[in-house]
Fold these 2 entries.
Entry 1:
Amino acid sequence: MRLDRYLAEMNAGTRSELKKRIRKGEVTVNGVCIRDADHQVEEEDIVTLGGEEIAYHRYEYYLLHKPAGYVCTLDRSLQVTELIPEARKDVMPVGRLDKDTEGLLLLTNDGQLAHKLISPRNHVEKLYYAETDLPIPEAAIEAFAEGLELEDFKAMPAKLQIPEERKAFLTICEGKYHQVRRMFAKMGCEVLYLRRERFDFLDLSGVPCGEHRLLNEEEVALLKKHCEKTTD
Ligand code: URA
């Protein structure tokens, strides 16, 4: 790929800024100063900008503690991606959380893994904490475990715990539009607060609301392993 593209993809600056810096002699490839933005580089090459090495990585995997008020879609402002300014431009949320929902959101530009993680066929568990307007009926535990009929689909069996009458932990393996809110609505309760606590084995430990971290290699490998069943 072109040298300026390599650097731009690694978020080292805009294409025009980078072209100028390359022309000024601020960039080396494998120890040699290169002043031509068109110079072809490979992912394995050692590239430095202003003396600092810029390593190439094709895929990025982030764990974000999403605050309320941010959307996972691309068509509106206050997008979750704005909370990770250093991310590659092609990094996208894995599935969606509603604007008002807080909690754990994965983001990546590895489309294949993202697709597998959100496929219900892989049974990747997501744990939610919810607070409701009214006491949650005990009958919801069995109803959720059996698989709740919603207007447009039958939810897969889900595990509900009710530690306090208006507080609940719900584990589901799919992520249809407004699913958690709709499941509680079916039981006569409105969800007033919703937070995703866990996505598979990943939780929010050490990541305060609004902050993010990169997943490490072992975590990415484990996520991939848990999706091995899906072939599509
Ligand atoms: N279910 C919902 O209703 N909302 C979310 O944001 C996530 C799951």
Entry 2:
Amino acid sequence: MTAVSNPILPGCYPDPTICRVGAEYYLVTSTFEYFPGLPVFRSRDLVHWEQIGHALDRAGQLDMRGIASSGGLYAPTLRHHDGVFWLVCTLVDQRDSSRGGNFVLTATDPAGPWSDPVWLDEDGIDPSLFFDDDGRVWLHGTRLAREPEWHDQTEVWLRELDPATMRLTGPEHVLWRGAVLGAVWAEGPHLYRVDGTYYLLAAEGGTEFHHAISVARSESVTGPYVGNRANPVLTHRHLGRDMDVVGVGHADLVEAPDGSWWAVLLAMRPYGGYHYNLGRETFLVPVTWEDGWPVFAPGQGRVPAVVEVPDGVRADGVAQGSGLGLGAEWPPAGPVLPGDLRWTGLRGPADFAEPYGDGWLLRVLPQNLTDAATPAFLGVRQQHQDVTVRTVLRFDPAGPDEHAGLAVRQSERDHVLLVVAGALDTGDRRVLAVHHRVGVATVLGERPLPAGDAPVTLAVQARGQDYVLLAGFGEEVPTPVATADGRTLDSVSAGGFLGVWLGLVATSNGAPSTGVVTVERFEYQPSV
Ligand code: 6LW
């Protein structure tokens, strides 16, 4: 038996999808405008996870240029059949609905390389795949209802997919519109076949406070599907907003070698008021079956804080000890080295960055974080409520508009900067703290830097919803320049679907530049 603390993937890892191939479990989550996208994780026990790659990781594989924040890669579904991994997903451009759509990637090695996208001619979001025992393949997904009875009513559709041509064939079937009268956003659908019966699992209520999971079943894959009278089979919406975990929904099921069943799903952990800066995270929930229906978190009816995972979840059945799972060991504290898969940029490869020892050489680009582009930004998810990120860098700005340092990012319109900048009136340098809030930039504080080429240490110390911005010159202990209010940086305040990223930024704010920033190191240090 191994105990694992929930979430099993802390930080912005939403819309989890899982499958098992022999002794290995694989899991993928959505990543929106971040690149590389669609991280692929592997585990042998549902407790300890390691990232093995990204499904979208090369230039030219998918054009995400201009995609606004919280657009991009929505909920994926990962499945495996006859030696091939299939990943279906949606590219969403919220400003141009004629762009993007549902696509499928395939790979024989889940660590990659993955294929280029094959576009599927069905609209909507949250595509999923089901490989039936008769060899037929069924694509399903969710879309706004063609004939809605109320606002935001959606419908789950189903059509057969010819795997040879990747074309949809045969008639379309509408399977489900949600369990509850007035249900909105029936989404994240997944089909399974258990003991000969077809099951449809779907989220509803929307991916915020009212999120829930419902299930229906049928003797035919094309329906009709009958909802479980126990629906919603899991939600936290009736527990109120003061709960430690809220927004439970968007689940995917997997059967372990010992015949036990498990669900991965998303939820949020509010703190400092109803704000969840870590975003929608991946949680693990045990599932049993009663009267031909799945029971989520039996005996508890809520996402457990700690999950006891039996050894039979491993194909070899070998106990892994009682150590807590990934949440206690990952992400590792300390330097985030250039090869770490946690690094992500925006909308395309980080061609501006070159590994340099334990750090980076960053070219200063005209684009900045207010642009829906690929600015010189590299970051990692904030995965802990209380954490300090620190960088030591050398940068000689060519003028007051050249900035390089740390960023706390939610979106183009909502982010905080702590940067080294050229002084306004002399050739010296300064440290500048700026809060971009709903697109309006406010200077939170600034401090002149002494002359000299000693490195500058910048740090962001997140303590609850206080993001303390510190700076030090040379050997000085960094001291506070300003404090930013984190409650403005989560999706409750800023909208969208993302948690906070903490990272490096280098920009000339629209002007051409030949500047280069030497980042000696970047450290991620959770507070114990
Ligand atoms: C995703 C939908 C959802 O496509 O939010 O959690 C959307 N539910 O299923 C973006 O993550």
